[in-house]
Structures are given as structure tokens and as C-alpha cells.
Design a protein that fits this description.
- Helix content is about 25%, strand content about 25%.
- The protein is an alpha+beta fold.
- Among the domains are: about 60 residues, Tumor Necrosis Factor Receptor, subunit A, domain 2 (Ribbon), CATH 2.10.50; about 55 residues, no CATH class.
- A three-stranded antiparallel β-sheet has the order 1-2-4, with no helix packed on it. A two-stranded antiparallel ribbon has the order 3-5. A two-stranded antiparallel sheet has the order 6-7.
- The longest helix has about 35 residues.
- The chain is rod-shaped.
- The termini are far apart.
């Protein structure tokens, strides 16, 4: 019996607390006395309530909660709005409450066409832009788009830095490409802070010059050796076959002695004979 009484008391207390909570969330939240001072006039309803009477003796009767499927955002609205239904390509993200409308989204590949997502449009990829028919079109020539679902932008006509130049023409996805002038092989004025100038051409010139000089020295030396060898071959003694003719013997002997004189081994002279005109060995 005692346990039954305790249970009843707990239920009654819970019911009272719930009623109190409901009372606080319904009716007029803020009011002021009327001119007749007999009534009060509501200035703000509880969230999710709409105005039924502007003035009256009881503040709780001035506002009433919105019915299911309706909502209100303004505390002074006299009626509740019907909740939005997500249809077609829309999907429901959050259900409607008495204080907030339904939150709709769009299926994959689509995006909301306005802030309220009242309709869906095709999501445009890079290289495209949305058109007036809620579809996508390729960026026109001379424009590009590197973002998702954005308007195409015109290609740049000049580079942002003074020592840059356009080297690659853009397309529907990218802008014109700018690089430093030195990187494109053109001459760039030296900067005081640039200590890494390109030094390959001077080094290559030095190597080519040294190689050319070595080649010339080798060529001249080889030519001198060839001339010296040729001269030695021409100075060798002429050896003739022996014969009984006295004139031939004398000529051969003279040739032999001339070769010895050239090598410094003899001082003999071969003179012509006064009587016969033949060569004689002296």
C-alpha cells in the first residue's frame, strides 16, 4: 500500500512538472499592460507559437503553438507557415519543426539553385560553367575555370611579375602559364640579390678553346715529324749495281763519299779530271 501511494505521488509530480514546462513553452513570452490596464498586450510569443489575440486578460491565451507540419520563425507572426516538402531531385536533410522549416538538399551530381535550396541544378565541373538553362557548358575560348561550379574567367594577358613572360597558352581548365624570363632561355638583367647566374656557356667556351689549342699543337707536331722523316729518306746514299765501266765505278764511289761528308765522317773531295772530264777521287 505504501509503495502504491509513493508511485501515485511520483506520477502526479511528474505530470505537474511536464505541465509547467509546457506552460513555459506556449503562450505569450513577453507582454505589457494595455491602456485600460485591465488587459495585457503580447509583444513576443514563445518560439513555435503564433499570435491569436494581441491583448487579453490572460497572457497564456494570447499565443498558441503551431500545429504539426507548420512552423513560424517570427515571434509576432499571426499564422504558421506550412513545412516545405523535398521533392524530385531534392533530398530531406532535416525534418521540419515548429521553429524551423524543412532542410532540403540535392542528390549527388546536383547542387542547390538558391539559398533556400528550393530547386536543384547540375553541378558543373572544372572547365565548365553553369548556363541559363540550369545546365553546364564548356568554358568559351579565351576563358578557364579551375573550380567546381564557378563562372569561367578570362585568361591573363600579362604576367604578374615584370621579369616573366607567357610561354604556354591556357585552356578551359588553366590560365596562361607565366615563367621567369631566365627559365625560358631569354636574357634577364642581373639582380644584386641573384648570385646563381647561369654559367654553363662560358665554361663550355673555355673547354672548346682548350680542346682546339691541343688539337692544333698535335697537328703541327705531326706535320713536323712527317717532314723530318721525308727529309731523312731523301738524304740516304744511292747504291748502284757494280759494273766494269770506269765512269760508273767512279760515280758510285763519289756518291758514297758525298754521303759520308754529309754525316761528317770524311773530308775527301770528288773532282773532275782535267784530261778526260771524268770524276776523280782526291
Amino acid at each position: 500500500m505504501t509503495m502504491l501511494v509513493s508511485t501515485i505521488l511520483v506520477l502526479l509530480l511528474a505530470k505537474g512538472a511536464l505541465s509547467s514546462m509546457l506552460q513555459r513553452d506556449r503562450g505569450c513570452k513577453r507582454w505589457k499592460p494595455s491602456e485600460q490596464k485591465q488587459n495585457v498586450c503580447c509583444e513576443e510569443c514563445h518560439p513555435g507559437n503564433h499570435v491569436v489575440f494581441h491583448c487579453g486578460p490572460n497572457p497564456e491565451q494570447l499565443c498558441t503553438p503551431c500545429r504539426e507540419g507548420t512552423y513560424t520563425k517570427n515571434a509576432k507572426d499571426i499564422k504558421c507557415e506550412r513545412c516545405t516538402q523535398c521533392t524530385g531531385a531534392q533530398i530531406e536533410l532535416e525534418k521540419c519543426t515548429t521553429t524551423r522549416d524543412t532542410q532540403c538538399g540535392c542528390k549527388d551530381g546536383l547542387k542547390c539553385g538558391d539559398a533556400q535550396c528550393s530547386f536543384c541544378i547540375k553541378k558543373c565541373n572544372k572547365g565548365e560553367e553553369p548556363d541559363e538553362d540550369r545546365d553546364c557548358r564548356t568554358c568559351p575560348n579565351g576563358t578557364f575555370n579551375d573550380q567546381i561550379h564557378q563562372k569561367c574567367k578570362p585568361w591573363r594577358t600579362k604576367c604578374p611579375n615584370p621579369y616573366q613572360t607567357i610561354v604556354i597558352k591556357g585552356d578551359a581548365f588553366t590560365d596562361n602559364l607565366c615563367v621567369n624570363i631566365s627559365s625560358s632561355g631569354l636574357k634577364q638583367p642581373e639582380s644584386k640579390s641573384d648570385h646563381t647566374a647561369f654559367t654553363w656557356p662560358p665554361v663550355l667556351s673555355v673547354f672548346l678553346s682548350v680542346a682546339l689549342i691541343i688539337f692544333l699543337i698535335i697537328a703541327v707536331y705531326s706535320e713536323k715529324r712527317k717532314r723530318k722523316a721525308k727529309a731523312e729518306i731523301t738524304k740516304r746514299p744511292i747504291i748502284r749495281t757494280a759494273t766494269d765501266d770506269p765512269e760508273t765505278l767512279i760515280a758510285s764511289e763519289c756518291s758514297f763519299h758525298e754521303a759520308q761528308e754529309e754525316h761528317g765522317s770524311s773530308s775527301s773531295e770528288c773532282l773532275p779530271s782535267r784530261e778526260s772530264g771524268d770524276h776523280l777521287l782526291v
